[in-house]
Amino acid sequence: MRKPIIAGNWKMNKTAKEARDFAEAVKNNIPSNDKVDAVIGSPALFLSDLMTISEGSDLKVAAQNCYFEESGAFTGEISPAALADLGVQYVIIGHSERREYFHETDEDINKKAKAIIKYDMTPILCCGESLETYEAGETAEWIKAQITAGLAGLTPEQVSEMVIAYEPIWAIGTGKSADANIADEICGVVRQTVADLYSDEVAQKVRIQYGGSVKPENIAEYMAKENVDGALVGGASLQADSFLALLEALN
Ligand code: PGA
Known about the structure:
binds 2-phosphoglycolic acid, eight-stranded parallel barrel, alpha/beta
């Protein structure tokens, strides 16, 4: 039985005070953690504060990115070692915004996945197609290629423990969420790709999220689907009451 995981992705939002206020408001109000993993993906600048505030609570913390090198002359980058040292549990990698605006390739993302796992953190590996690819009916091929490249060289055990997020680019921040049946179908393509690359056993263990305009009002529709194990949520994760409502919808 896969444990659902709801992860907020704040993107480039909030000040340090707003991040602290959010964590204080949320940390003691997470519905029972045996039912769902509750994660907030914060800008790196606030991670230290969030780790301190969330200590001993059920709120888990994700970075939105990291570099794949151990250390060195990479101005502006953040190492997996530094994140692990803070106690960060998850790192979001390969978000479509990073692929598009910061030119991240599947190869970069694969190196990041390996570096994150090396430091005992869990990658949340994002994949997703553009509207053009979707309308051309090429989504399944696109997703298979992204997943195959993103997981290259990882062991079955490593893949079993990770999280993959399917986020159609046309549904991100647009208010135009993918129908729950489409989300289920493409999360199923991700799962089948893992089965083909590894085994059915690994595919049954890996957790797969849907992301793209998920809100408290529609999350239950996605979670009812067989292949959807959680959600990666941008806009609706920014306010404490909305984030808690997402978690409560699963109770
Ligand atoms: P959204 O963003 O929920 O605001 O559509 C999702 C994401 O980009 O992770």
